[in-house]
Amino acid sequence: MRQSGLTLLEVLVSLQLLIVALLAMLPLVRLSTSALAVIPTASAPGPARLRTLATRYLEAELEYLRSFPYARFRSSRCPMSGPPPLPELRRIPGDDLLDGEPRLPEEFFAAEIEVADEPVGGAVPDGCGPRRVVVRLYRTAEDAESGNPFAQAVLLRARR
């Protein structure tokens, strides 16, 4: 007569296989717990979050600058009439924000907006040639001092 169930030997072999499988997974558990230790918190965003914030700010700033007519970007040599041109170099924070200008994300130290002649087109006789607007975003004070931007974007403006 045959009895149903497991023998002691079968139970020991199955426990031994289970222990080997768990020991094989131990490096994965260590790796996942160390990865959890470096997950950014809300006070210290990770690199992907910083890139997203930088991209959103640069897009918003460029869209804001696109709303201005060329006369706001002209050089001081350009005899065109109109509103006063923007300064050649603005620093945010530091210089006041213009009406409706996007605010600098708190995760960044500063932004710099530089307006200069576009060098590709060559010199224009009346000084009203194409202008290059560069928006640079700095993460830290050291980056700003060394001129090493975290991200930057360029806008070209020309007289129509």
Description:
This protein has 160 residues and is α+β, with helices and mostly antiparallel strands. The protein folds into two domains: 8-37; 47-157, no CATH class. It is built from three helices and four strands. It has helices at residues 8-37, 47-66, 141-146, and strands spanning 89-92, 110-117, 131-138, 151-157. It has a four-stranded antiparallel beta sheet with strand order 1-2-3-4. The model has no long low-confidence stretch (mean pLDDT 83).
In short:
35% of the residues lie in helices and 17% in strands. By secondary structure, the chain is of the alpha+beta class. The model has no long low-confidence stretch (mean pLDDT 83).
Notable features of this structure?
160 residues, alpha+beta, rod-shaped, 4 strands, 17% strand, single chain
Oligomer: single chain
Compute the separation of the termini in Å. 102 Å
Order of helices and strands: HHEEEHE
Would you identify the regions where 5 or more consecutive residues have pLDDT less than 50?
A: none
Q: In percent, how much strand structure appears in the residues?
A: 15-25%
Number of strands: 4
Instruction: Work out the count of structural domains.
Output: 2
* Biggest sheet record: 4 strands, antiparallel
Number of helices: 3
**Shape annotation:** rod-shaped
Strands in their spatial order, largest beta sheet: 1-2-3-4
| Helical residue percent band | 25-40%
Spatial extent as radius of gyration:
30 Å
The structural class is alpha+beta
Average pLDDT reading: 83
